[in-house]
Amino acid sequence: MGFLGGVLIPVLLLTLIGPAFLTGSTGDGSEAQAPGGPGQTGSGGSAPAPGAIDENSIFDSQSFDKQIEQSVASEKETKLEKQLGGQVLFSNDLLFPMDFEYYTVSSRFLGTVFGKLTYPDVASLYLSYNFLSDIFRYSSRAGAEPLDSSLFDIQAELAEFFIDFDVHKKVFIRMGNQLIAWGPSFFWTPVDFINLERFNPLAKIDLRVGKPGLRVHVPIKKTNLFTFFDFSESLDENNVPRGIGEALRAGLRYDFVLLGYEMGLSTYFGEGVRTLAGFDFSGVFLRSDFYGEFAFSDGSNTPKAVPLSTPGTYALEYTDDLVYSFDIGMQKSFGEFKYWTAGGEVYFNSYGYGAAPPVDFLLQNGLFNPIYTGKFYMFFSLKKSNLWGNQNITGSVACVMNASDLSFDAYTTLGFLFPRLIPINLKLDYLGGPSGKTFTPGGPDSVLLSVFTKVSF
Question: In what helix (H) or strand (E) does residue 262 lie, and over which residues does it extend?
């Protein structure tokens, strides 16, 4: 059914079944009745129902106006709210090496659409789908990789689908497929223990998919306790149900304020996974936003490529040694009108690869991630709004470098946002360093030029 079956029909179903799903009905099928309030009883011996007009005060104009206001307010509170929206990216990219031996040019639509139904003070239902459609791709490179689908297909996948509700505003519950956002860091996220994929700060749009689970949030004065029960392992690789004891995993997070800093403690544990523990903080230091994350585990949850006796061959192995990573960053706005923003982060991963990462082997096994493959990384960015005195233009320069293998991605962007015109963005990446490294898996120094627009609706 393509795009209609994968995206539009679920959203339309939400719109149609939402009122029946979210109405406040009693267990026997009858509508729940609001309790009567205190007051004088009438001839029937019962107090007037909320929103009803007391016959003893029917000629009292002030009482009449008050009853009308209460009736209107009650109607607004119980009205089902519907929301549709999303984000669309239209991107055109040109990639070529500095020696101009080949080129690759492509164009594609991608993004996410969502629908949300909210029954005030009862519950809300949220559904979102990611989609991708290639328009064209040309390449003069021999052995170019094939696309995942043809130009006549629209790829669509469920991103998130959950229900939100609370218990007297004391306990907040979310159940279903969802993304979890723990930790304050922007670029690297060591305490992101739960999501299937780590956030990619180099991507133009976030197309990650959520994990099935139950999140429980309990605010306690100025602190918060989060619990996430992970259901993603409840089925085995053949979709056969497992027992709770052998498949249930859970994550915990407790955040609080200490000495002016927001701090968090987190962990993730369960059957078949090494227990992970983390600490993060955020606050102000030297008049700048200062933040960091630290994570460690007694052993690894992902395999690592270990060289074999034959050169160029590897085997995947887990380790029982201590594995740890940390990220520290700062960001500061400055200038008379705070048009300038500078930021930077450093990241270290004890489980990463050094000067010779086995990039090809990792790609073949689906384990390659350019910003997490190495041991030591650095990132710096400088952004300015109101560029050249025009509030509709922004510009930035940035660089992320794997100091372990000396490869890097240096890029600059220009954003144009003029009234009654779609936003236009230009991005120029220079992928440098030795061939076959973290940021140069396809060859030596190359240039990537992107012209894209991203619209939210």
Answer: strand 261-270
Are 379 and 399 contacting, i.e. CB atoms less than 8 angstroms apart? yes
User: Which letter does DSSP use for residue 442 in this model?
Assistant: T
Which residues are within 8 A (CB) of 47 and not within 5 positions of it... i.e. 6 or more apart? 36, 37, 38, 39, 40, 41
Q: Is 302 helix (H, G, I), strand (E, B) or coil?
A: coil
Q: CA-CA distance, 241 to 247, in Å (whole number)?
A: 9
Alpha-carbon span 302 to 228, nearest angstrom: 21
For all residues of the chain together, what is the average pLDDT? 86
- Strands (DSSP E) found in 286-321: 288-298, 304-307, 314-317
Distance CA(60)–CA(286), nearest Å, equals 64
Q: Name the DSSP class of 325.
A: E
d(CA 104, CA 221): 55
What is the rounded distance in angstroms from the CA atom of residue 269 to the CA atom of residue 216? 16
How many C-beta atoms surround the C-beta of residue 382 within 10 A?
A: 15
Q: Evaluate whether 292 touches 328 at the Cβ level (below 8 Å).
A: yes
Exposure string for 184-215, b = 16+ CB within 10 A, e = fewer: bbbbbbbbbbbbeeebbbeeeeebbbbbbbbb
Tokens matching residue 206: 């976030």
| 100 alpha-carbon distance from chain centroid | 37
Q: State the DSSP code for 63.
A: H
Largest CA distance in the chain: 98
What does 107-144 look like in DSSP terms, one character per residue? EEEEEEEEEEEEETTTEEEEEEEEEEEEEEEEE-STTP
Whole-structure pTM value: 0.80
Q: What are the pLDDT digits (tens) for 194-243? A: 999 999 999 999 999 999 999 999 999 889 999 999 999 999 888 899 99
Which residue in the block uniquely carries the two structure tokens 């983390």? 278
Amino acid residing at 33? Q
Tokens at 120, concatenated: 């005030």
Distance CA 126, CA 177 (A): 10
CA distances (Å), 381 to each of 199, 306, 331, 399, 405, in order?
18, 34, 9, 7, 21
Q: How far apart are CA 346 and CA 364, in angstroms?
A: 28
